[in-house]
Write a structure and sequence with these properties.
Helix 2 packs antiparallel against helix 3, helix 3 crosses helix 5 and helix 4 runs antiparallel to helix 5. By secondary structure, the protein is α+β, with helices and mostly antiparallel strands. The chain has a five-stranded antiparallel sheet, sandwiched between helices.
Amino acid sequence: MIHNIYILKKTGESLLHGYYGSIEVDESLITGFLSAISSFAEEIGAENVESLIMKNMKFVYALDTSTPDSIIFAVCVDREEEQRKIENILRKIKEAFMASHKSDLETYTGDLSVFKEFYKDMDEIVWQYVLEKYGKAFKELITNKKRRIDEVVTAIHSLFAQKIAARLIDHILEVIFQ
């Protein structure tokens, strides 16, 4: 499951933070940590970080160096998430963000509002992943006579942030009642 997506300057300054799952952590703490790990990797000659694995979660990184301040893209996911799929999502986010905001980054003055519109694009990329990975399974749970709809809805709300949970429930109900 995708829990969080971070887009930050290599200095640690957060540009965007998307919250999608059940893990919620202080954004400034995490962006500072992600930046420090990236700087450490560079300092020891490792060039950059690809992923950081912990017991139950991992951070997958992508770096863009095409602007004066390098941009770090990182996603926090459950450890068992397939690395290639997460890297693909991160690549899509990176490409879309840089296509939309490269010029904003080159003239960046600290106004984060210029990036706010990108939340829609990021949400859509994550939504496509959630739909592909979980949509069918949750639909089967709801149509399974052994499970009550309210139990499935509660499970969805415990796993996902509100915006993803609501969209997933709406989608499942739409498919069921077609």
